[in-house]
Design a protein that fits this description.
The complex is a heterodimer. Chain A is of the alpha+beta class. Chain A has helices at 3-9, 11-14, 16-29, 47-56, 151-155, 160-169, 298-309, 347-356, and strands at 61-70, 95-104, 108-114, 119-125, 128-133, 138-143, 175-185, 188-197, 204-212, 218-225, 233-241, 259-263, 282-284, 291-295, 313-317, 320-326, 331-335, 339-343. Chain A is built from 8 helices and 18 strands. Chain B has 12 helices and 2 strands, in the order H-H-H-H-H-H-H-H-H-E-E-H-H-H. Chain B has one domain (39-299). The chains are: A alpha+beta, B mainly alpha.
Chain lengths: 358, 308
């Protein structure tokens, strides 16, 4: 009996063919067939040795694709900051975003933020900093001062390396550092460094940093809110190559017809990353429960976040009146007298800070 | 239709019978796998299928509508207000005519193209059944698997033709109304017109594969009913359901599994350097759905009682 005869006699069996096809496709997409590669074990390493490796790891060049997923539970933010051409950078605070990143030492980087039908690029090549906004067909050229080597990084602040650096800076005696089971990120074997705050006052449950087994470069950072099993922030490479990219990746000439603006180094936008300080301000407390305080004027706040502010919950207490945003990982209190308090803490801690820092 | 008819048809001189076991006694199951090694025979079958598809006035009307889209876009942009530039792809039309083709593809991708493909694919089997030609077709004799293969071949050519009509009309309108020099890619870097044309070709290929997925779905639905309009409507409805689900942010976990999720990923081919990762993923997703729908169509059609 041939297969075709069997199929002819038992019609129901025919449906096993599409079932098998669907099964194979499902298994393939779940990565079952590529899983054997992940069985390669990395030599075990202590948390402190790994931590030291991460802090000293610097590669000479790389290119890759970074996927940043933010589910902070914030209301969807309109483009705050008001800096045109950069309008898409603050939008990084919510949703999923794909970036392409090219790196060739501190002097040459390029980041492309990929929109569905558009692209925002930052080219940093020596003292030239070009920002390209495809929707506006606008190129902004900034000549960096000679003593401003990190100016570009200020813009390009969401690579796993930079996010990991920030998390490691937050390590105080109140942090427990462990190495979890090996993980696979960007199709590479990676250690997983788990930073767990001992301080119970913070909303951060843990920070998990995937560290490349070979280069010790952070390949991904996940921030979990307390009691949550899915990350509130996940910035990871989906693909990475540790090879110096070709030089022409970093050069930019404005295309014909583009609006070319001259930027000034002083106007470089502030860091868009959550939980970090935009501009200047003071930090209250230390470690995971530190609260960032920013003093400005009510008029300034209304200018920057006017329409958004109206949607927020009004709160008041002994410290005064204001508006509150709470999310899984971050709370922000904007008082009516022009103070902004933000931190990875709950609202009560912000009220306490507002009371003591009049 | 009686067994005698089938056997008489199958036993025509010149037909080479490969199958040794007799067909199941119940009914017309599976047809008779009469095979000719000559490719010419398959070619003739496919050609007659293509003639049928491309000679239908309804289908020609679809192609005309698809071709009009880039013309409308080009004329509207030419006559429109030039102070408002529009977004990247529409704004690019005034700089380079190739963008007229790309903008048109962007416009027809969510509805017009799937509609055209759903009409042809939904009609593939059910159309024959509704006009009563299916049983004669199978009595010729044509193995059912081969009939499905030829129908899907016709659908593939139709998908490619619809995409090419949109792109070609866009390129022609763009070349007439707008400059055709260097093309500014999404990354703000320029390539020559020829290199831009090459990227447009790649885009067309990607869009055609995405549409072939709709075609495979349509072919499967078409084997389920004898009412062509129902098959067309069901195909289009399922396609739109996928697009609607893709637009609901709360379902983001489901999105990578949706057939239409990667449809606009061809935009990645317009970046510099080309971002091929997600494009490859999109092709894999389309390919997987094509396999699933084709095997479903085969399971349904080869075991079906054909009475009309």
């Amino acid at each position: 009996m041939t297969v075709s005869t069997i199929l002819r006699q038992h019609r129901a069996l025919r449906w096993s063919v599409p079932a098998c096809v669907a099964g194979v496709v499902a298994l393939a997409s779940a990565g079952v067939f590529t899983a054997q590669a992940s069985s390669e074990r990395l030599p075990s390493k202590s948390a402190s040795a790994l931590l030291a490796d991460v802090q000293s790891a610097r590669v000479s060049g790389l290119s890759g694709t970074i996927v940043a997923k933010m589910s902070l539970g914030l209301p969807s933010l309109p483009s705050i900051g008001g800096n045109q051409g950069q309008a898409s950078l603050p939008s990084l605070l919510s949703g999923s975003h794909t970036m392409r990143f090219w790196y060739d030492g501190p002097d040459r980087q390029r980041v492309a933020l990929l929109g569905t039908t558009n692209e925002t690029d930052v080219f940093h090549n020596g003292r030239d900093l070009w920002q390209w906004d495809s929707d506006g067909h606008t190129a902004t050229h900034t000549v960096l001062p000679a003593d401003h080597p990190a100016a570009a990084q200020k813009q390009i602040d969401l690579t796993p390396q930079q996010v990991a650096d920030r998390a490691i800076k937050a390590i105080t005696p109140s942090t427990q550092v462990t190495v979890a089971a090996n993980r696979r990120v960007a199709d590479r074997s990676a250690y997983e460094l788990v930073l767990t705050p001992r301080d119970t006052g913070t909303l951060v449950g843990s920070v998990r940093i995937a560290v490349d087994g070979k280069t010790k470069m952070p390949l991904g950072v996940q921030v979990f809110a307390k009691g949550s099993s899915s990350p509130a922030i996940d910035v990871s490479y989906s693909h990475v190559t540790f090879k110096t990219p070709a030089a022409d990746n970093f050069t930019f000439t404005p295309p014909p017809g583009a609006t070319v603006k001259q930027g000034s180094a002083a106007e470089l936008p502030a860091k868009p990353a959550p939980g970090t300080a935009p501009g200047t301000g003071t930090t209250i407390g230390s470690g995971w429960t530190s609260i960032f305080e920013y003093r400005t004027t009510p008029a300034q706040i209304a200018k920057v976040a006017g329409p958004l502010l109206g949607q927020l919950k009004t709160v008041n207490g002994t410290w005064g009146h204001g508006r509150l945003v709470t999310s899984a990982l971050l709370s922000v209190l904007v008082t009516d007298d022009g103070r902004v308090f933000a931190g990875a803490v709950d609202a009560t801690a912000l009220y306490a800070a507002a009371t003591t820092h009049k | 239709m009686s067994r005698a008819d089938v056997d008489a048809a199958a036993a025509q001189p010149g037909q080479v019978q490969v199958v040794a076991t007799p067909p199941a006694p119940s009914s017309l199951t599976g047809g008779r796998p009469v095979r000719k090694s000559l490719l010419g025979d398959h070619g003739r079958f496919l050609r007659s299928e293509l003639l049928m598809v491309f000679r239908r006035r309804r289908n020609l009307a679809i192609l005309v509508v698809l071709g009009v889209v880039p013309i409308l876009i080009g004329v509207a942009v030419k006559l429109g207000d030039h102070r408002e530039r529009g977004d990247t792809i529409f704004g690019g039309i005034t700089d380079n005519g190739l963008f007229a083709a790309l903008a048109a593809l962007l416009v027809v991708m969510p509805l017009f193209l799937p509609l055209g493909v759903a009409v042809v694919a939904g009609d593939a089997i059910s159309g024959e059944a509704s006009t009563g030609t299916l049983r004669y077709l199978l009595a010729v004799p044509v193995a059912r698997t081969r009939l499905l293969a030829v129908k899907f071949g016709g659908i593939l050519v139709w998908c490619a033709a619809s995409v090419v009509v949109v792109a070609a009309c866009g390129v022609i309108v763009g070349a007439i109304l707008f400059p055709s020099g260097e093309l500014t890619l999404l990354s703000g870097r320029t390539v020559s017109y020829a290199a831009g044309g090459y990227r447009l070709l790649l885009v067309c290929g990607y869009v055609a594969v995405s549409m072939a997925m709709v075609g495979a779905l349509g072919l499967f639905v078409s084997t389920m009913t004898e009412v062509p309009v129902a098959a067309m409507a069901a195909t289009l409805t399922l396609t739109i359901v996928s697009e609607v689900l893709d637009a609901v942010p709360q379902l983001s976990a489901l999105h990578p599994w949706l057939p239409s999720h990667y449809w606009l990923q061809w935009v990645d081919l317009l970046r510099d350097p080309m971002a091929t990762g997600a494009v490859g993923h999109g092709l894999l997703v389309s390919g997987a759905y094509i396999l699933i729908f084709l095997s479903l169509a085969w399971a349904r059609f080869s075991g079906k009682d054909v009475t009309s």
